[in-house]
Design brief:
The protein is mainly beta. Helices cover 8% and strands 38% of the residues.
Length: 271
């Protein structure tokens, strides 16, 4: 979905620019416009999901901030559904393809908010920041998200699936008054000594945006207590996807925050 969205965004920009060119001074001198040299798109857009929620707190017909991960011929995308202007959404939606994107099945994750009553429903007023990964060692798909209670308190949680279609209730990783920007990755290299280790990351706004990390070695079922990354780096979120750094003698996880401040060097942490 990350690649799909980038392609769609580029296409949308091209369309906007073309429209702007047509709405200009009235000149028909399009021969010098590079956008008119491209052939028409031949790949149709495929709708993966639709906002079906009706809660009054959301701006509906909205699905935003997608993430995706592919493993073999399987692709799983996750995204916010029913965006809430103050932050978060009605639920996290997912879309799954098992044939390299030819066909898709979609749904919503259970147990996150009060708006989706499947499997008993959740207790939270919103959920945000979906990120998806596959743990090859445990044959498990994991979607990380940030639930937001009615009081504003936040929890980093993961939803797990063994068949990328049926998802369990949320597993708590961390909680606090103002956590943000969770992300997740797994070490999927069979020869790595940390094969099957998954790493969740987020920032804690109430601790000057310190970057936190937790590790799972059982497919996301249980997680270690959160630790600060080396150097006590702080920042606004981070992207842990695929940041598994390998050397001749060791394998380590690295976090690349979007905006980072650190006193002294950042050392990679063995987990």
């Amino acid at each position: 979905m990350r690649l799909i969205v980038r392609c769609v965004a580029a296409l949308g920009l091209a369309v906007i620019l073309l429209a702007a060119a047509d709405c200009g001074s009235g000149s028909n001198s399009n021969s010098n416009n590079p956008f008119f040299s491209f052939p028409a798109a031949t790949v149709p857009l495929v709708r993966l999901s639709t906002d079906t929620f009706t809660n009054s707190t959301s701006q509906h017909a909205t699905e935003v901030e997608p993430d995706s991960f592919s493993f073999g011929s399987t692709i799983v995308a996750a995204f916010q559904v029913g965006r809430i202007s103050s932050g978060g959404s009605s639920d996290i939606g997912f879309a799954t393809s098992t044939d390299s994107g030819a066909t898709w099945t979609n749904g919503f994750l259970p147990g996150l908010t009060t708006f989706f009553p499947a499997q008993g429903g959740g207790t939270n007023a919103a959920v945000s920041d979906a990120a998806v990964i596959h743990d090859a060692a445990h044959a498990t798909w994991i979607i990380s998200s940030l639930t937001i209670s009615s009081s504003g308190a936040t929890q980093v949680v993961v939803s797990r699936s063994s068949d990328e279609l049926n998802w369990g209730g949320p597993v708590l990783i961390g909680q606090g008054p103002n956590l943000d920007k969770d992300w997740i990755t797994c070490d999927n290299t069979v020869t790595s000594s940390f094969y099957g280790h998954c790493y969740a990351q987020w920032d804690d706004h109430n601790q000057s945006n310190l970057i936190k990390m937790s590790t799972s070695t059982d497919g996301g079922l249980t997680w270690t207590p959160a630790v600060n990354i080396s150097g006590n780096a702080d920042g606004i979120g981070g992207h842990a996807h695929d940041q598994i750094v390998r050397t001749a003698t060791d394998t380590k996880a690295a976090v690349l925050p979007n905006h980072v401040n650190v006193a002294g060097p950042i050392n990679l942490r063995r987990r």
